[in-house]
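User: Batch of two.

Assistant: Item 1 of 2:
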Amino acid sequence: MAHNTFISYKYSEAKDLRNRIVEALGDDGRYYKGETSTSPDLSDRTTEYIREKLKELIYHTSVTIVIISPKMKESNWIDWEIEYSLKEIKRGDRKSSTNGVLGVVMKYNNDYAWLRSTVSKNDGHSLTSTDTTYLYDIISNNRANQNTPKYVCEKCQSIDALEGSYISLIEEDKFFENPNKYINNAFEKSKNIDNYDLKRTK
């Protein structure tokens, strides 16, 4: 099933990945909402003007993809775009639902070590940790926030990578193997929002 999708990203380092994501959506790419090469230039506009344009784009979407890149936190907009995506906004007699939100981790220097490290434990399991200094608080606070966690391993209490967090972080290689799987997963979580301790503000 196709979903109206907004992509939040730092233009200077992630525009190529953004373009690949739009292309990977194929026919569903027609539902993409967000900045394109033909979008009006917002660089010389006031903050409020830009904010209103972004609100209009996000309001009509149901899934937000956030590209997780090394300098993402230098953006003036990404955390605000996530916050707006998580809100329920009323306009007239219509109210938008909270978007599903998915993080796609950008490969940098040919791997993901800039953000994630994996260690093998004595019991044979591996543990992946994420360097949250690269993430906005609104992303970190919506990770591992399932009200009743589903563990993939009860012994080491490793949470499910997709279901355990409202905002899952998926490496770009995995994402491109099956984009609809991850977009649909984010959308389904937005329809079961009571399963998560959701933090809506940055």
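Item 2 of 2:
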Amino acid sequence: LVDSAPDIRAAVNRMLATERLAPLDLPTVVSFIGNGLPVLVERVMRLRGLAPERHEELTRRTLDLYSRAGAELTRPYPNMIATLETLADAGFALGVCTNKPEAPARDILRALDMDRFFGVVVGGDSLPVKKPDPAPLHRAFETLGHDRRLYVGDSEIDAEAAERAGVPFALFTRGYRKVPVETLPHAFRFDDFAALPGFALHRA
């Protein structure tokens, strides 16, 4: 939905600044994204030599910094709003399933006026497990209550979650993927969200 890496990087670097440590560049932070904030902070700590026993403390601090910043640097991907409007007007029930904590995810959707499109938001802390475990996807689809299902994502985590949930997967190829497109199971791939409604309407 959105490119949130700049705001995630800003929160990470503010946390590092409180430890008097050098900031990280955007590609490094992007390489850490995908498995949720605790894993991201763990990777940052390992890179900067911070003591592992401080993980819970520094994760809380990073989340607080991220939440307070809101959607300062986060933006929807190009053509995203028009795509959501087209899908909503066509009668699709839409939801969000993310490894981002639920509260910041909802805050970002509200800040960008995107919350109006979604009937459910399942975050990385909404359940005891997160993607690639299929439970968050199952929760999202069960809440939406439709039998015809499609999951749209941009990473190997998303592809595995969809496969384990038995849901067709549409792969956005310009997101946070770290492996070649060809290695990920998908029913459709696209690099512009303007292409997504045509595929979804054809499936319907």
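The mean pLDDT is 95.
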